[in-house]
Amino acid sequence: MSGNPKVLVVASEGMPFVKTGGLADVVGILPRSLRALGVDARVMMPKHAKIKYEYGDELETIATSSIHLGWREKYIGIQTLEKDGVTYYFIDNEDYFSGSVYRGGGVENEQYLFFCKAVCEALLLIDFDPDILHINDWHTGMIPLLVKTQYAQRYKKEKRLLFTIHNIEFQGKMGFDVMKDLLGVPDYYYTPKFVESRGCANMMKAALVFTDRISTVSPNYADEIMHAWFGLGMEGILSARRHELCGILNGIDTEAFDPETDLAAAAHFSAGNITNKRACKKALIAEFSLGVKLQTPIVSMVSRMTPQKGFDLVRYALEELLQEDVAFVALGSGDREYEEFFNYITLKYPAKSGLYLGYNEALAHRIYAGSDFLLMPSEFEPCGLSQMIAQRYGTLPIVRETGGLVDTVAPYNIFTGEGTGFAFSTFNAHDMMAAVKLALSVYKDKPTLRRLRKNAMLLDNSFMKSAEQYKALYKSML
Ligand code: ADP
Ligand code: GLC
Description:
Bound molecules: adenosine-5'-diphosphate, alpha-D-glucopyranose
Number of helices: 19
Largest sheet: 9 strands, mixed
CATH topology of the largest domain: Rossmann fold
Structural class: alpha/beta
Number of domains: 2
Shape: globular
Helix content: 25-40%
Mean pLDDT: 97
Low-confidence stretches: none
């Protein structure tokens, strides 16, 4: 590994330990892929309750210490574990990490202000001295400021920082008094030039100002976030630093999501022999007790139920869609209004709709394997992994042309007959329905359907391409 930078990936969640969304997928697969490229990449994250219960016996404590958050003295423990060749460091403090991964509101801000400072302190305590700190999303946003101010004289060698934006919607906003009280950030920084945005102290803004380089998870989203509608207040700093901003498209874990070997799926299939996808579909129909024939197309969603994911369009149009010969399956959880809507739909259309409210990894695999189409009408989408996973299982995504969905789905072209999915551009329920109806008409045209499925399954969505770009980026930062 000599000659390559040493990298510490820092995030709030990561596979295989804790996952609430795609961030965890990326934090899971990135270090493993980097190691395959000869980069010593390790991971640091909070020791969430689930990690304590599932891996408690395997964790080794390497240091205990304390940090000051204002007048409060807070314990930090650093525990470690090696998994699949990657070393993980967990920040232990049960005041902050014994309950929900994200507690919401001011409590959540404090969870991650603590985490940022604990990471900076942990770098003094572990025997790994990274060249690059690759930090992710607002939960890690104060690390660059702390590294370059309070901790600047304390490290043996300079740290270079890469901040990756997975989702700009969540920024870690608070009153400046809170940031000042807990982290001792001086008044001087409370201006739009530093941590202030729209009247608040903002952890994402702090990251964007103090980090050395910025990346996001698709080239298209990198362009979009320089505009106000997508940038949500960050467009100014992003435009100013556009030469230090890049988009590296995510990939997926092609071993975990492999239709040829998937342990959760009812049967196995490949691009060369897709016959068994029918067996997966049959099992899905049975699992949700749907009263439809095997020939009826199944449209699914596997998603956090939030406005970002386009659930307002779905809520508007789903009953109209269910008048067609189609079944609809949803897996996810989130905003109450959407959950209640799906409860209503499953009560009204029990034979044609299936619902699982909650998080279920194995069921997600079975839905990807057994469905015909995956609906993802996102209002915005930094990258999106679900559409890539669906493609790998020959389940054609129906997406809105935004963010990474543009970079990963080639919309079916009625003139050439080619594509790897379906797309619509305006955020409008009727446009979405038109795309869904086009998909349903292609479903009846079996040669075209087979061709599109094969195109989708043969795409190389593996994370290795992404890891190569990250490696090149790290090297360019030294
Ligand atoms: P986001 O990170 O914005 O939620 P992505 O498409 O990038 O969206 O990633 C979502 C990931 O989470 C995918 O791996 C998807 O399969 C998974 N996922 C989403 N909701 C659920 C759920 N309820 N149960 C299991 N997996 C889920
Ligand atoms: C975020 C985004 C999603 C992206 C994921 C992983 O949660 O919403 O689009 O795929 O992070 O980068």
